[in-house]
Amino acid sequence: MELALDLSPPESKHYRNWNERLRYVARYSQPEEIHVACEIARAVGVTSVMAVLDRRTEVALRELQVWRDLSIWAVVPNMYAFIRDLTDRGLVGAAVARFLRLRPAAMIATGMNALRELGPLARSDFSAGALWLAQMELAAVQQLHVRRVFLHPQLTEIALAGRVSELFREFARRVRALGLEAGLVTHNPVLAAEVLGEEMNSFAAIVSPCNPKGYKMVPDRATCEALFRAQPGRFWGAEVTAGGHLRLPGAFAHPQTMGLAGTVIDPRGLQALFAATG
Amino acid sequence: MTRVLVTGGTGFIGSALVPRLVASGYVPRLLVRSSPAVPAPAPIEVRIGDVTDVDTLRLALEDVPAVIHMAAATSAGRLDPAVAYRVNVGAASALVEACRSAGARLIVLSTQHVYLPAPGLYGRTKRMADRIFLESGVPVTILRPSLVYGPGSRGVFVRLATLVGKLPVIPVIGPGQWRMRPLFLDDLVDVILAVLARPELAGRIYDVGGPDVVTYDELLSAICHAIGRRCRTVHLPLGVSFALAWILERLLPTPPLTTDNVRGAVRDAQCDPRALERDLRPRLTPLIEGLSRSGLSPSHA
Amino acid sequence: MPDARPLRCAVIGAGRMGMVHGHLLQVYPGTELVGFVDPQRGAHERLASQGLRAPVFTGIPEMLASANPEAVFICTPTHTHLAVTRECLARPLHLFMEKPVATSVADADAILALAREHRVMHAAGYVYAHLPIVDEARRLLAEGVLGEVLRFSAHAYISEVFGPKSGWFFQRELSGGGVVANMGSHVLFILGWMFGRIRRVMATTRSHASNVEDSAHALLWFDGGVTGMLDTSWSMPGAQMLDYGITIDGRQGTLVLGREQILLHLLRPIGDHPEGWSEIHASDLPADTAFDISPHIGGESFYRQLRAFETACRTGQLPFCSLDEAANTQRMIEGIYTSAASGQPVEIG
């Protein structure tokens, strides 16, 4: 069973108290610390790093890939940054801000895409907007060796609720066209299986909670686990420590029995694992 | 007799440390990249290998309870990022893994550059390495020395003394007022040996500096005095120094000035001696005496 | 015999919260989304592209006539809530009101009065109260594990405002206020739910960057004698989602409520709870949601909130998160603003 490191922004996680939050946020807001976390992760057997590509993470991963070959899984788009820009600058301003980050060649390619999709974009079409944002973010980080691209869970859950299967289909198609693999992060894997149907095969990895306490396993542990067993090798387990309630490495045992392809741990779990290894 | 694995044992500090290890009754086992031209005298052992390779380290750690880790990619010359990360950071994670397997403890030679708010590649990679060592749970003591000087033909200090002796006017980066605690080589070796003898100091970090706090200008003056020449300096603005260093790094394989050197010149080195004084009470050599013992003489002028 | 048909629900205001509720209404088996009301051009295409399949109307009367809802979810800007309620209650419709329910106590009371007059079920969107761990904390308090509750200390922080902001949300007369009304109110609601009617408030507010208050300190006195302090700011770094904490001291122990866990310290064993420290984690609580709309937005609490409202509509029993409770919250909000403006404590009748 493989291991991946979850580099979601530390500001997006839950903590036991405010001081713990500030400690982790302050630490992992530094590209250097993110880089160290990746090296420690590699040392404990992590083979992939899953990250929302904000500026500090991008800097850290660019430095890392100078000398290490960890697989990068990009989670796109950066919804927190987009929503913040949306409220500060409006939709057009937010999109323009991202557009201006691109290199000239990427601007042309992305601009051409936008022209083709101008109608839907102007109508604030959900799928068109999500895909264009995702594509822009990927274009902005072309120098990173991204191997897999995951749709941001905030968009995934909304799309699942609305059963917008065409978003998933098109997302997977565009990712494959880039020579990469597509993935999903969702707390609703059973609904995902229902909405995606056969399209599920287009996704190389689906990250969903898996732990013996059923924590965050929706609708319930038994239904999720039946799905995991039915699709061996497709799912990766998140929340394997049940919100920090279980210890690593012991907590790996359960997802292993489910036939999961791997598990995803965050820097807190990584710290515990590094200190415990050996 | 206790074996001690030493990485970087053939460098400036290592060349002073290894004989003292022998004199103190240890058996140094040196991990080196290539066979030495002259075989090491007994009881010194030599292992050929890469400090970033876990398997090499595991073998080198057979029957070895302690490691003194000094191997580093430094800012002595142009520093390639891939090399800096691989050697400084990669060696840290490899050593951690090997020491865990062997149950060995670590004494790590770090640098004052880790305290700089904007360190160069050397300082950054050493800081990252320190973080890995400290997070690992392996018993580790970290030593962060200030500018080390002493007899011998290598090291930053010797280059400095040579420059001082040769140039009619000595260029100084910035106003030259950044402060440091130049550390005599023998004193650093004393501290390493003292820490080696005290496993209970695992988990501690020590700034190791000499007793005298001097500015860079004052250090230059002291060197000039030791070699009997007048000290004429010209202070280069930081921007000019940085640009010059940047150009030199791109033109020369071993530039006399690097961007890391410039970064190190803009802030006082922290070098807080209190922890060291509390735990080890070392006898530290004053600068004037140390310069004299370093073999500096008017012949350098 | 309980009616097995899904509750027909319409959403008024198709902004961010309207869309979230729309999705939940479609996913939850006990409800049916029958319409949106939004005057913005292109709303229909925008909503349809997200899979929100209900028809979109530009006005409430048109929606009432065509969609025939049994309940409405009012997600328009706060200052419109009273007028929208009046318009909706042209017929008896159960009311779900996004928070804060009004820009003033007078309006909140008027909305409540309308709901009572029409004998409809009602609820307010203080969604954090529906977190399983918050529910558990309240249950423990109700069980009396702390004995007589004496005091509390609470915080509510988020990283949202670090510079000037535009939009109706940052205009007091439209949104009801700043951080207190729009973010800290989540915790105020929980405090009221736990400790009862607010009696007195003493507060200060500060504006860091926006046109409304960005932080506040409030001392709160409740009818039952519990006193405590809330510190709230939406200009704190480090939290993309609301970070809250409530520490409650009683004569027999202390309860520390966090996002995903409760730490309990008891001076002696009470029931199943041991003397000394123990922890209850969210993972220990029964899982009872069928859809998680993402931890970033509110996780399972939106689903539980909807279930509480739908159950109320079906059974005729008001939920705990009713507009009565929300009116108490509105009194705290207004008390904070009044006290901050005057520099004096405010007695609340």
Model regions low in confidence, pLDDT < 50 over at least 5 residues of chain A = none
Q: What share of residues are in beta strands of chain A?
A: 15-25%
Corresponding CATH architecture of chain A: Alpha-Beta Barrel
* Largest interface summary: A-C, 52 and 48 residues
Number of beta-strand segments of chain A: 8
Largest beta-sheet characterization of chain C: 9 strands, mixed
CATH topology of the largest domain in chain C: Dihydrodipicolinate Reductase, domain 2
As for the number of domains of chain A, it is: 1
Physical arrangement of strands within the biggest beta sheet of chain A: 1-2-3-4-5-6-7-8
Q: Which sequence of strands runs across the widest sheet of chain C?
A: 14-13-12-11-7-10-9-8-15
Parts with pLDDT < 50 across at least 5 consecutive residues of chain C: none
What structural class do helix, strand and pairing data of chain C support?
alpha/beta
Q: Which CATH class of the largest domain in chain C is shown?
A: Alpha Beta
Give the end-to-end Cα distance of chain A, rounded to a whole number of Å. 18 Å
Rg of chain C, rounded, reads 20 Å
What would you report as the Rg of chain A, rounded to the nearest angstrom? Answer: 18 Å
Top-tier CATH class of chain A? Alpha Beta
The CATH fourth-level homologous superfamily of the largest domain in chain C: Dihydrodipicolinate Reductase, domain 2
Helix and strand succession of chain C? EHEHEHEHEHEHEHHEEEEEEEHHE
Describe the structure.
The complex is a heterotrimer of chains A (278), B (301) and C (349). Chain A is α/β, with parallel strands linked by helices and 278 residues long. Chain A has 13 helices and 8 strands. Chain A has a single domain, classed as TIM Barrel, CATH 3.20.20. Chain A has an 8-stranded parallel β-barrel, surrounded by 5 helices. The radius of gyration of chain A is 18 Å and the shape is globular. The N and C termini of chain B lie far apart (45 Å). The model of chain B has no long low-confidence stretch (mean pLDDT 90). Chain C has 2 domains: 7-127, Rossmann fold; 128-295 and 320-347, Dihydrodipicolinate Reductase, domain 2. In chain C, the strands form 2 sheets. A 9-stranded mixed sheet of chain C has the order 14-13-12-11-7-10-9-8-15, covered by helices on one side. In chain C, strands 3-2-1-4-5-6 form a 6-stranded parallel sheet, sandwiched between helices. Chain C is globular, with a radius of gyration of 20 Å. Chains A and C meet through helix 1, helix 4, helix 7 and helix 8 of A and helix 1 and helix 2 of C.
